[in-house]
């Protein structure tokens, strides 16, 4: 979602964001319908066979098998020029690292692509992280990370707590940018 708030910067550098997950097409349509990400394509890979496993981004141990949080930047020939794979479900890369990798490709700007998929979403489709829960969830995460950073004496543990706080701040900023009027 953070990169969705940077559409102008992503597309201005000739790139697009594609989100791949183990959710089926109906759940992907539900995610697209619920979240303000009009220029992100959601791709379904339920068993991870097409995309996630070949790229080493599938965790078969977590909840029966899910995609690991990751960010890849591919050049126009499909070569990987940037890779970040999260250590766990909450670990994300920084936007600046991704934007620098994309800028390094030297591509011409593109028009924002259509997002999707757009499909029928059952009214009772559950199991999503509801948009109304995002702010309290990331605020809570942020305050927990701040508290932990003040309790630990190990420099590496402190750095991880600060990194998590910064990720929460970036996510909260992105949500405000995506949902603020005008």
The CATH superfamily of the largest domain is: Glutaredoxin
Average pLDDT reading: 87
What is the number of domains? 2
Helix and strand succession? HEHEEEEEHHH
Placed side by side, the strands forming the largest sheet appear as: 1-2
Largest sheet: 2 strands, parallel
CATH architecture of the largest domain: 3-Layer(aba) Sandwich
Number of helices: 5
| Weakly predicted, low-confidence segments | none
- The helicity comes to 25-40%
Number of strands: 6
Q: What shape does the CA trace take?
A: globular
Summarize the structure in words.
There is one protein chain. The chain is of the alpha+beta class and 182 residues long. The chain has 2 domains: 1-117, Glutaredoxin (3-Layer(aba) Sandwich); 129-182. Helix content is 39%, strand content 14%. The chain has 5 helices and 6 strands; from the N terminus they run αβαβββββααα. It has helices spanning 7-12, 25-34, 95-103, 131-151, 155-179; strands at 17-21, 40-44, 58-59, 66-67, 70-74, 80-85. The strands form 3 sheets. Strands 1-2 form a two-stranded parallel ribbon. α4 packs antiparallel against α5. The mean pLDDT is 87.
Features:
6 strands, 5 helices, two-stranded parallel sheet, 182 residues, alpha+beta, 14% strand, globular, Glutaredoxin
Secondary-structure map:
Blueprint: H1 7-12, E1 17-21, H2 25-34, E2 40-44, E3 58-59, E4 66-67, E5 70-74, E6 80-85, H3 95-103, H4 131-151, H5 155-179
Parallel strand pairs: 1-2
Antiparallel strand pairs: 3-4, 5-6
Helix pairs in contact: 4-5
Compose a concise summary of this entry.
The chain is an alpha+beta fold and 182 residues long. The chain folds into two domains: 1-117, 3-Layer(aba) Sandwich (Glutaredoxin), CATH 3.40.30.10; 129-182.
């Amino acid at each position: 979602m953070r990169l969705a708030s940077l559409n102008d910067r992503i597309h201005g550098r000739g790139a697009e964001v594609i989100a791949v997950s183990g959710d089926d097409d109906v759940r992907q349509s539900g995610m697209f319908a619920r979240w303000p990400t009009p220029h992100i394509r959601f791709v379904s890979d339920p068993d991870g066979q097409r995309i996630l496993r070949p790229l080493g981004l599938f965790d078969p141990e977590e909840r029966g098998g899910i995609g690991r949080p990751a960010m890849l930047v591919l050049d126009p020939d499909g070569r990987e020029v940037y890779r970040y794979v999260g250590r766990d479900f909450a670990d994300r890369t920084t936007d600046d690292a991704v934007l620098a990798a994309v800028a390094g490709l030297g591509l011409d700007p593109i028009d924002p692509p259509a997002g999707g998929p757009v499909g029928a979403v059952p009214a009772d489709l559950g199991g999503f992280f509801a948009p109304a829960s995002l702010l309290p969830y990331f605020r809570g995460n942020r305050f927990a990370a701040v508290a932990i950073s003040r309790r630990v004496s190990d420099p590496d543990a402190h750095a991880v707590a600060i990194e998590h706080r910064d990720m929460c701040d970036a996510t909260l900023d992105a949500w405000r940018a995506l949902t603020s009027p005008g």
